[in-house]
Amino acid sequence: MLDNAMRVFGSHWFSTSFSDSPPTHYALKIRSFSVLTKTLADEYKSGEFEAGGYKWKLVLYPNGNKKKNVEDHISVYLEMVGADSLQTGYEVYVDFRFFLLDQNKGMFLVLQDANKKEKCFHAMMRYSGFDKLITLTSFTNPSNGYVIDDNCVIGAEVFVCKERRAGKGESISKIKDAVKCKHVWKVENVSKLGTECCESEPFTAGERKWKISLYPKGKNHGKGTHMSLYLELDDPEKLSGSKVFAEFSLLIVDLMYAKQEGKKANVWFSTSKSDWGWPKFISLATLNQAGNGFLVKDTCIVEAEVTVHGIVTAL
Fold first, then answer.
1. pLDDT digits (tens, 9 = 90+) for 79-136
2. Which residues contact 241 (CB under 8 A, 6 or more apart)?
3. I want to staple 234 with a disulfide (CB 3.0 to 4.6 A). Which of 52, 163, 209, 294 is the partner?
4. DSSP string over the chain
């Protein structure tokens, strides 16, 4: 290598040098560059090559990466093949450089990011490179030597500097077209239930199992004065560090007047917070008052409406 310098190519600062030798790891020889610039395919990916124990590809946008609103420049990136299969939190730090063959000088121009040489690749960052490697005008100008008789060579060298396991993380996903699930529970012989918790049959909402928990004589600060109602995950241990965001309501039906006494909430459920509800859902005085219709023939109807909107998965 010789002629180390700091130069601006395509509005980006590069550390540049010239090399008599071709790139160690990969060279992409394009025999008809004009065909690439005129085809409908904006992106071209090279074949795979190996460097530092990993597989890579060169990704070329001959007319600029339109996803980044790049025009009149060539965009070039390094892609890690199989990055999605890396262990969660695993990072690979890479020092890479791109090569452009100057056919007039018979040498390669070597370009490297002047600001930060090492780039980090991981499961969520498969690409790294330059949106504006060089202007299309400069690249195709025969006097610069990069494209001669419609032929050019673009190459890469890739050196893995270090590998490490990063911290934990989580992924949040929203459920599109979430469906509301309704479950009706007929609770009989209410006066004979005592003080212990009663549970409904499990039901499914948002691909998870739920149940209603009822405390006939109350729980916590509702004990002795109210009926307490909760929505609860039936299998919280299966979340394994994940969380579920649910919009729900719990209701007691007025059997005489077709009315309902209800409360609503939006809650993140998890292994450590598997239930949510109201210790003072309805007072025992109101529940037992003749003519209210909440308790008829020692029976009440409890309903749950549950809509799961999102899931957080541990990475």
1. 999 888 887 778 899 999 999 999 999 999 999 887 767 889 988 889 999 999 999 9
2. 271, 314
3. 209
4. -EEEEEEEETTEEEEEEEESSPPSSEEEEES-HHHHHHSS---EE---EEETTEEEEEEEETT--GGGT--SEEEEEEEEETGGGSPTTEEEEEEEEEEEEETTTTEEEEEEESS--EEEEBTTB-EEEEEEEEEHHHHH-GGGSSSBTTBEEEEEEEEEEEEEE----EEEEEPTT---EEEEEEE--GGGSTTS-EEPPPEEETTEEEEEEEETT--GGGTTTEEEEEEEES-GGGGTT-EEEEEEEEEEEETTTTEEEEEEEEEEEESSS-EEEEEEEEEHHHHHSTTSSSSBTTBEEEEEEEEEEEEEEE-
Distance CA 58, CA 45 (A): 6
Q: How far apart are CA 305 and CA 311, in angstroms?
A: 18
- In angstroms, rounded to a whole number, what is the distance separating the alpha carbons of residues 246 and 310? 7
Assess whether pLDDT exceeds 60 at residue 21. Answer: yes
Question: Which of 164-168, 203-207, 271-275 shows the lowest mean pLDDT across its residues?
Answer: 164-168
pTM, rounded to two decimals: 0.55
Residue partners of 297: CB distance under 8 A and separation at least 6: none
pLDDT in tens, 27-46: 999 999 988 888 756 889 99
Q: Which domains does the chain have, with CATH numbers?
A: 14-165 (2.60.210.10), 171-314 (2.60.210.10)
- What's the Cα-to-Cα distance from 227 to each of 188, 193, 280, 309, rounded to whole Å? 14, 12, 6, 28
> What is the length of the chain?
315
- pLDDT tens string 56-76: 999 999 999 999 999 999 999
Residue whose C-alpha is closest to residue 273's, from 265, 261, 281: 265
